[in-house]
Amino acid sequence: MLIGELSRRTGVHAHQLRYYETQGLLEPRRGANGYRDYPADAVLTVTQIRSLLRAGLSTQEIGYMLPCATGAAPDLESCPELVAVLRARLRGLDEHIDTLARSRQVLHDYIDATDRRAPRRTCDASPA
Prior knowledge:
The protein has five helices and four strands, in the order H-H-E-E-H-H-E-E-H. By secondary structure, the chain is mainly alpha-helical. It folds into two domains: 1-77, Multidrug-efflux Transporter Regulator, Chain: A, Domain 2 (Orthogonal Bundle), CATH 1.10.1660.10; 78-117. The chain has helices at 3-10, 14-22, 42-54, 59-65, 80-116, and strands at residues 29-30, 36-37, 69-70, 75-76.
């Protein structure tokens, strides 16, 4: 199928499909006219890519995992290396969430302390 058909069937823009190709996630054949010709299973592959992207995985990580993906969810075949990548990504997300939570608390503390003070003057604290 041509890129336009794959785009229609998956809801993914053609430029994103070309990006997936540059990342090694999709491998279309080229027709005599130079057009990309995607196999029928490319619809499933794009669905898997989109699902893994929603999990916050990079295209590099997805390229590593895609051969282990089955089904549209995707389901992943269990292997220690794959689980290690997933756990590392989860640790990174947890650390980022912790950092955001600390920042949020500090901002709340500043707001609370500022609200308790009586206003003395106006200040020009507009963001630049």
